[in-house]
Amino acid sequence: MACKAICSVALLLAGALPACAQPAPPARVAAAPAYADVADLVIASDLVIDAVIASTVRIKGAEAANAPPGVTRYYVEADVTALIRGTSAVAPRVGYVLDAPLGADGRQPKFKKAHVLLFARAVAGSPGQVQLVTPDAQRGWTPELDAVTRRIAGELVAGDAPPVVTGVGNAFHVPGSLPGEGETQVFLTTRDNRPVSLSILRRPGEQPRWAVALSEIVDDAAGPPPRDSLLWYRLACALPPALPARSTQALGLEDARIAQDDYRFVIDQLGPCRRDHAGG
Fold first, then answer.
1. DSSP character for 38?
2. Which of 7, 27, 97, 280 is the least crowded, having the fewest Cβ atoms under 10 Å away?
3. 227: closest CA among 168, 187, 269?
4. 143-157 vs 35-44: helix axis angle to the nearest 10?
5. pTM (2 d.p.)
6. What is the mean pLDDT of the chain?
7. 242 vs 143, 169, 246, CA distance in Å?
8. Are 114 and 52 in contact (CB under 8 A)?
9. What distance in Å separates the CA atoms of residue 40 and residue 280, rounded to the nearest whole number?
């Protein structure tokens, strides 16, 4: 009986073990979730709910006919412990449909009493019912995931939240008075037409400096956005790897080349928009 209980907990938290008799692996510090994965979910969600699963009922027949192979469909009820994101209250207990893949041993996972974060939207006309924004938008709670989720939810409602970047506009380069000196400015397009621009300053013998401005005025004291911040995400996960040709069509060949180099410098400095989760 004890062996069975231990195996059930392992299945819930970390996937099925090869055999219950195997010794538990050494405890490891949980890796922080990729910021972009979590941001994708939080931004897509009207509701982000901290909850504990109360019950699961397997859905069979016609209602589960379109479930992918190797997936079990459940109706889940969960008790809400906190509303992390949402503009209105939610019921103390919410219900939703969950498609969950089988464990590594081919068994159905057991979720009862699991502590989870739900990334969801309300179901119109059905109080107490929510819909997950992606098939994998029920995530097992960890301190790391909770912290990143709450930070992103706060960034989204902050008064200085950056706009959604949709692309690259025109780029300009002004050479300086010394060889190798100059400044490039790249204007970005945004969903709500708010101004966003990149500026790259080069001086002979110095590392290029760049900054992002969220107004018509470029602040000389501004700098790059912190890694794993909402502004970093808006840039790193939206900008193309190179300037479109139309962005430099008004420039001479040499100025266009420098603008391209400066833009690539910014992209390199931002780093990749890492996503670790297939559903992110």
1. H
2. 27
3. 269
4. 60
5. 0.83
6. 86
7. 37, 12, 11
8. yes
9. 6
